[in-house]
TrEMBL record:
<keyword id="KW-0106">Calcium</keyword>
<feature type="active site" description="Proton acceptor">
    <location>
        <position position="318"/>
    </location>
</feature>
<dbReference type="InterPro" id="IPR018391">
    <property type="entry name" value="PQQ_b-propeller_rpt"/>
</dbReference>
<feature type="domain" description="Pyrrolo-quinoline quinone repeat">
    <location>
        <begin position="489"/>
        <end position="549"/>
    </location>
</feature>
<feature type="binding site">
    <location>
        <position position="276"/>
    </location>
    <ligand>
        <name>Ca(2+)</name>
    </ligand>
</feature>
<feature type="signal peptide">
    <location>
        <begin position="1"/>
        <end position="21"/>
    </location>
</feature>
<dbReference type="GO" id="GO:0070968">
    <property type="term" value="F:pyrroloquinoline quinone binding"/>
</dbReference>
<feature type="domain" description="Pyrrolo-quinoline quinone repeat">
    <location>
        <begin position="41"/>
        <end position="368"/>
    </location>
</feature>
<keyword id="KW-0560">Oxidoreductase</keyword>
<dbReference type="InterPro" id="IPR017512">
    <property type="entry name" value="PQQ_MeOH/EtOH_DH"/>
</dbReference>
<feature type="disulfide bond">
    <location>
        <begin position="124"/>
        <end position="125"/>
    </location>
</feature>
<dbReference type="GO" id="GO:0016020">
    <property type="term" value="C:membrane"/>
</dbReference>
<feature type="binding site">
    <location>
        <position position="174"/>
    </location>
    <ligand>
        <name>pyrroloquinoline quinone</name>
    </ligand>
</feature>
<dbReference type="GO" id="GO:0030288">
    <property type="term" value="C:outer membrane-bounded periplasmic space"/>
</dbReference>
<keyword id="KW-0732">Signal</keyword>
<feature type="binding site">
    <location>
        <position position="192"/>
    </location>
    <ligand>
        <name>Ca(2+)</name>
    </ligand>
</feature>
<dbReference type="InterPro" id="IPR001479">
    <property type="entry name" value="Quinoprotein_DH_CS"/>
</dbReference>
Length: 600
């Protein structure tokens, strides 16, 4: 890391702006020996150029070393590797470890924030955290209590910290951050508590707030220009959000931003999704509830929204839109286009032109999806870009206190936050999915700050008339909107995928297996049972000329909340406890890092 500090120092001496100095971060990202962002790169491809481990030798992988985090509950995200140091994070209380790779993972420093344990019950779906980011000699952590902390990467000392929200109102954090140019961009959680959510840019140097854009409300607070911000090619117009909410309901609107951020340096745009509107009872919030459930493209310098696309207007099923946006340059039709691919919770895989927001593809990436027949792709139709809802599965039309049965997917979506990967070699996306359906009964609920504002009772179960399991791991063609191959899994695949230049794709399972499959065929090449269920994201790095693969075990998250929090009521955990009850027969709690490599 010495080179990083020297470059930063020379930038300061020469008077170079922090934005230009962060060309260094782009260089760090481009080095496949390390991983400085949770998403591997700004495009969110989760692709590594390392190929020492390949389809011919991956079956020889062995455990090189392990590390216990000392924390139970769900371990999402992945370690980072910068130079000769690995940085490992935990769920609440969000401990950060710096491990010296030259000394078999010896702890170089440890940071343990002191957080109020009252934050724990306000976190809807386990005390997870999706990890750290590195930039300009700092490790950046967004804690559960919404404190954003920049730590000196060499010493672990706090450089600056800033509070992004108030847990007493239900505002918490589970997400990673996006360091870009001279900024750190962060989101917020709390849709199940009636929080009006936002994204915020802070100064990477000192933590000062630069801009904030809300998901709903007045145009100026959303950083939307009625004439310049477009949706499906047309200006959104004045009060585009306010007109779609009744009265002041937008003030408890949800639209939270706890997913992943991507960034296109050429267009200077960041991309992310906003979550479900509050409450889960659709009868209580008539209208499209814009701009919840939306893909956003914002200018990183100003926060100004360039374009928006709402995937699930007036969400009736808690189909959060926060999943990652994967950026690729591919041939679409007869020309190369800058594409954005998004696997939404609602079960549709979307491909858009990321420069303009034009909708190119919207197809089901699990055949059991039934709440809508299709997305209307007729540009002359008044319903262009909207899903065509099936009345039988409409919780709005069926009404309050009516149990709508057999809705596919369940509220946790055909895919939740567990990120997909993309290989430029195969031009396929590798997607961890949930093969789960639900019964959904909305009920009337009143808003009290800091109290749950859900308004629905759920039960979940495996998709009927299928392979009997609750998950599939699929390869997806985003240009044609088709599944190329699918591997059935007993439980949801709640681990993030990793694609590599060795034509191997890695992912983990809720039972605790690290699996490696052939990128072209999906054939399983390797599996190893780790001590606990895997909801972390697989990563790879190179140290002293040797490629390593690492993953965090530690069952939990929404799917594993029954185990993680000791819940037994089948309807608890927003319906997940009953659906995943059998998981306790296969794994148990425990936070551990496992590192693999090839024998000498």
């Amino acid at each position: 890391m010495r080179a990083v500090h020297l470059l930063a120092l020379s930038a300061g001496v020469l008077g170079v702006t922090p934005a230009l100095a962060n060309d260094d971060l782009i260089k760090q990202i481009a080095n496949p020996a390390q991983q400085v962002l949770q998403t591997v790169d700004y495009a969110n491809t989760r692709y590594s150029k390392l190929d020492q481990i390949n389809t011919g030798n991956v079956n020889k992988l062995q455990v090189a070393w392990t590390f216990s985090t000392g924390v139970l509950r769900g371990h999402e995200g992945s370690p980072l590797v910068v130079g000769d140091t690995m940085y490992v994070h935990t769920p609440f209380p969000n401990i950060v470890y710096a491990l010296d790779l030259n000394q078999d993972g010896k702890i170089a420093w440890k940071y343990e924030p002191k957080q109020d344990p009252n934050v724990i019950p306000v976190m809807c779906c386990d005390t997870v955290n999706r990890g750290l980011a590195y930039a300009d000699g700092k490790i950046i952590l967004h804690q559960a209590d919404t404190t954003v902390v920049a730590l000196d990467a060499k010493t672990g000392k706090v450089v600056w910290s800033v509070v992004n929200g108030d847990p007493k109102k239900g505002e918490t954090n589970t997400a990673t951050v996006l360091p870009v140019k001279d900024k750190v961009i962060v989101g917020i959680s709390g849709g199940e508590y009636g929080v009006r959510c936002h994204v915020t840019a802070y100064s990477l140097k000192d933590g000062k707030k630069i801009w904030r854009g809300y998901s709903m409300g007045p145009d100026d607070e959303m950083l939307i220009d009625p004439e310049k911000t477009t949706s499906l090619g047309k200006p959104v117009g004045k009060d585009s959000s306010l007109k779609t909410w009744e009265g002041d309901q937008w003030k408890q609107g949800g639209g939270c931003t706890w997913g992943w951020f991507s960034y296109d340096p050429k267009l200077n745009l960041m991309y992310y999704g906003s979550g479900n509107p509050s409450t889960w009872n659709p009868k209580q919030r008539p209208g499209d509830n814009k701009w919840s459930m939306t893909i956003w493209a914002r200018d990183v310098d100003t926060g100004q929204a360039k374009w928006v696309y709402q995937m699930t207007p007036h969400d009736e099923w808690d189909y959060d839109g926060i999943n990652e946006m994967i950026l690729t340059d591919q041939k679409f039709g007869d020309k190369e286009r800058p594409l954005l691919t998004h696997f939404d919770r609602n079960g549709f895989g979307y491909t858009l032109d990321r420069a303009t927001g034009e909708l190119l593809v919207a197809e089901k990436y699990d055949p059991v999806v039934n709440w809508a027949t299709k997305v209307d792709m007729d540009k002359s139709s008044k319903n262009y870009g909207r899903p065509l809802v099936v009345a039988k599965y409409s919780t709005e039309q069926n009404g309050e206190d009516v149990n709508t049965k057999g809705v596919c997917p369940a509220a946790l979506g055909t895919k939740d936050q567990q990120p997909a990967a993309y290989s430029p070699k195969t031009q396929l996306f590798y997607v961890p999915t949930n093969h789960v359906c639900m019964d959904y009964e909305p009920f009337r609920v009143s808003y009290t700050p800091g109290q749950p504002y859900v308004g629905a009772t759920l039960s979940m179960y495996p998709a009927p008339n299928s392979h009997g399991g609750m998950g599939n791991f699929i390869a997806w063609d985003n240009v044609n909107g088709k599944i190329k191959w699918s591997v059935p899994e007993q439980f949801s695949v709640w681990s993030g995928a990793l694609a590599t230049a060795g034509d191997v794709v890695f992912y983990g399972t809720l039972e605790g297996y690290l699996k490696a499959v052939d990128a072209k065929s999906g054939k399983e090449l390797y599996r190893f049972k780790t001590p606990s269920g895997i909801i972390g994201n697989v990563m790879t790095y190179e140290h002293k000329g040797k490629q390593n693969v690492a993953v965090l075990s530690g069952v939990g998250g929404w799917a594993g909340i029954g185990l993680a929090a000791g819940l037994t009521d089948p309807n608890a955990g927003l319906g997940a406890v009953g659906g995943y009850a059998a998981l306790s027969n296969y794994t148990n709690l425990g936070g551990q890092l496992t590192v693999f490599n090839l024998p000498q």
